[in-house]
Amino acid sequence: MKKTVFGISALSLLFVAIVSLSSFQSPNTPCLDSTSLLEETTEIESTMSDEKEYYKGFKDGWDEGWKDVKGKYSYPPHPPHPAYPSYPASIDSYRDGYNAGFKAGRRKAQKS
Predict the structure, then answer these.
(1) 14-24 pLDDT, tens digit each
(2) What distance in Å separates the CA atoms of residue 37 and residue 103, rounded to the nearest whole number?
């Protein structure tokens, strides 16, 4: 939650800075148009995202593991934050995260 609020405020501040700096350009320099501004903010948002593929896979695997035990129409609880993967698994691998999340979600559903 704090990271999201920080990210939004950082983007807002960046937007205000770009708009204010673009208004002080000399007549010979091209003006920053809205499409290039949109491209820049989209690029910044994608680099600020700290959710790796492993974490996305873990969340999806957790949901499927829970539903495997409780039924496909059950509502799984929010998944825990996964530990950093050990050596053979990669932080950039969706499949490794999915497998770990599936096992963890299944274990948690069997205990409850």
Answers:
(1) 666 676 666 65
(2) 43
**Listed residue (22, 39, 41, 40) closest to 31, CA to CA:** 22
Helices 94-111 & 53-70 angle (0-180, nearest 10): 30
Calculated CA dihedral for residues 109, 2, 50, 7, nearest 10 degrees: 140
Nearest alpha-carbon partner for 105 in 47, 55, 65: 65
The answer to whether 16 touches 8, Cβ cutoff 8 Å, is no
- Spell out the residues 6+ positions from residue 85 whose beta carbon is closer than 8 angstroms to its own: 54, 91, 93, 96, 97, 100
Residue-wise burial string across 40-72, b where 16 or more C-beta atoms lie within 10 A, e elsewhere: eeeeeeeeeeeebbbbebbbbbbbbbbbebbee
For residue range 20-56, what is the model confidence (pLDDT) as tens digits? 666 655 555 555 566 666 666 666 555 445 678 999 9
